[in-house]
Design goal:
- The protein is 49% helix and 16% strand.
- The chain is of the alpha/beta class.
- A six-stranded mixed sheet has the order 1-2-3-5-7-10, with helices on both faces.
- The protein is globular.
- 39% of the residues are buried.
């Protein structure tokens, strides 16, 4: 039986590929639990310092599998409640990941796939790919942290427009609205994401992890509390091997040689 999720380790980067192309990589309960488990393992794997998420076939991910929901028996609400619990675990793992996470958007990203892409640190979108909020067109409300990330990326007015009208968003519009980091040629999203990951891996990963944590925490932290978090993490990172190397290299007027395993 073919796995609904495949992984490949390339150097220190984990590539996670959603693998239900016949269903546009929509996830059922088993699939999203597998995704969450892989994310948990990746977060604590000391030999992995980057993650790419992509899809096989014509879609990145079409979100929750509505056929699975309908066939569950019982109420749709109960099925969504259970599915969202696993899905939200995966979203939290992406947001908390102390390593760069890049969505390589190779095709349609809709519903839960849209929210999952927004949860990633960066998004590389292929020219012919399309984003769709999709929830409201199906009589549903947004989940997967989409109501958290979307207005922070595009502002409240644009987020309401995307929610109310649910028009397909092509690559160039997604780029101009700030929904994606880069647009690349069809078939090249994963390769470009790998280039970006490697560029980050050449730097101080302890610095990236601390800065990512601080930026995400800033949305629900007071200035006083945020300043204290900054002071604490700055002191901790400064005492790391990468921190010491960065300061020494600056004083010696040379390029730092960061320890990627630090």
């Amino acid at each position: 039986m073919t796995s609904s999720v495949t992984t490949e380790k390339i150097g220190k980067t984990m590539v996670l590929v959603l693998n239900r192309p016949e269903a546009y990589n929509a996830f059922d309960l088993d699939m999203i639990q597998e995704v969450a488990d892989i994310l948990i393992q990746t977060a604590v794997d000391s030999d992995t310092s980057g993650l790419i998420i992509s899809g096989r076939g014509k879609a990145f991910c079409a979100g929750g599998d509505l056929r699975w929901i309908h066939q569950c028996g019982g109420s749709h609400g109960a099925a969504f409640h259970e599915l969202a619990a696993r899905y939200h675990q995966a979203i939290l793992e992406i947001r908390r990941m102390p390593k760069p996470v890049i969505a390589a958007i190779n095709g349609l990203a809709a519903g839960g796939g849209f929210s999952m892409a927004l949860a990633c640190d960066f998004r590389v979108m292929e020219t012919s790919a399309v984003l769709r909020q999709a929830y409201t067109s199906n009589g549903l409300s947004i989940d997967g942290g989409g109501t958290y990330t979307l207005p922070r990326l595009v502002g409240l007015a644009r987020a309401l427009e995307i929610t109310a009208f649910d028009r397909p968003i092509d690559a160039q519009k997604a780029l101009s609205w700030g929904l994606v980091t880069e647009v690349t040629d069809d078939g090249n999203a994963r390769a470009r994401a790998m280039e970006m990951i490697r560029e980050i891996q050449e730097g101080a990963l302890t610095s990236f992890a601390a800065s990512k944590q601080l930026l995400i925490d800033s949305f629900h932290t007071s200035l006083e509390a945020q300043l204290e978090k900054e002071r604490h993490l700055l002191a901790r990172v400064a005492d790391s091997r990468a921190g010491r190397e960065g300061v020494t290299a600056f004083l010696e007027k040379r390029k730092p040689l960061f320890n990627r395993d630090d």
